[in-house]
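Attaching the record inline, Q. Sequence:
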Amino acid sequence: MNQDQFKYALKCGRGSAIRYVQQYGADAVRDILLAACIENQAYDGQCEGNRADWLFSMIRGCKSEAWFAESLVKQLNDPDEYCDLEQVCELLAKLALAGHENAAHTLRQFVWGQVIECEMDDWYGFHAIISLDGEPALIRVIRILGSILKTDERAYVDSLDSLTHDTGISDTALALIESHADSDEYIALYINREKREAEKEAKRESETPIERDARIKQFGQKYLVDLPVELVIQMAKEKQSGCNGKFRQFGRFAGDAERQAILRVIDQESDLDVVNRLARVFMVGEPAWIPAQIWTLLASEDENTHYIASKFLSNSKDVAVGDYVRQYLHDQSIAHNPSFLRLLKKHLIEADVVLIYSVLNTQWSDDDLHEAGRALLEVCEENKHIPTGKVCEWMYLNNPCSLCREGAIDLLIEHDYVSADVINEGVWDVNGDTVQKLKQYSKAT
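Structure, as predicted:
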């Protein structure tokens, strides 16, 4: 692996990045590592979370550790547009605990200073400051969050678990803040919220499958009363904004009569924007037939429209869907339309696996790699009776998203198709769940 390959592996969160540092040292690639510390380079940072733990494992104890601390201090004092403030705060907390006083001073100054100057949506570093300063910081943070609840009792605030995990005080945190509740209104408000949320969670966890199904059914019945099929069609035709989630939710609960009413409208609708909206109803569940307009949507150059059509068709058992996608597999043009792979969900046969693998080892952009991986995860999940280990291995070794890679690992373990290459790479992956699963698999085998 050269430095360009290391840079890409680091961006993707691959275990090979850590193995490179273990072999050559962090000092040899410190500029590349610093860039990754400042900017969360995850494919989907919002879903994958920050990478502070993983990155710190590479810079901890290296000759340039003080240089990393000073560089991140400068960044927090004057962040650039790409700076992930939460990740930088977490790294500074770890560096502070490793003895870098300037990191500790800067983190405290930043966290408590922003509380005065910023709107609550712009606050960062609460977990980091609790990691650094323990119980006094926790009490101060809880008071701030309680003051938010005083203003808006339905406001989102961080849970106690999220604030204290891996801080060393998670086991005693609740008792600590409870001891202050009688004398502090803000802390009492926060504790009451925590207890209500805990009661809801306990109730959900204690449900039997029959109770859960009954609750969902009751919710669905109410949903359809509040949003009847006539209103769904009206919303689509009027092109009302903010309704995409409602169309999908309607499809989850709608019965055959409602779904067929939507299909009839799609069949007769010439406005493809309206068709696109109504097609979302069939992102869940099998459509009774395929209106011609859905094939038109599939040919769209708009990525989102194309995706909606592929989801619709992937739920259909019409043999035309399988025949359609195999044309692209045979001439290898699927490389330009990776979401087409999803169309095999209801139609995969063993011969298709060979065709799929033959087109995977071509040049793909990161976005196409991700979309191909997402589509293939759906296909492989639906067809566990077919040996797809080789395809799942490709997904793990090539997908830029750590969450998709975790999905591939689940399938590889289920198929008992985990190679030494996958284990050697995966036990250092940025995704902690992937690491745990592979370590458990290795131990069991």
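The first helix runs from residue 3 to 12. The chain has a mean pLDDT of 93.

More tomorrow.
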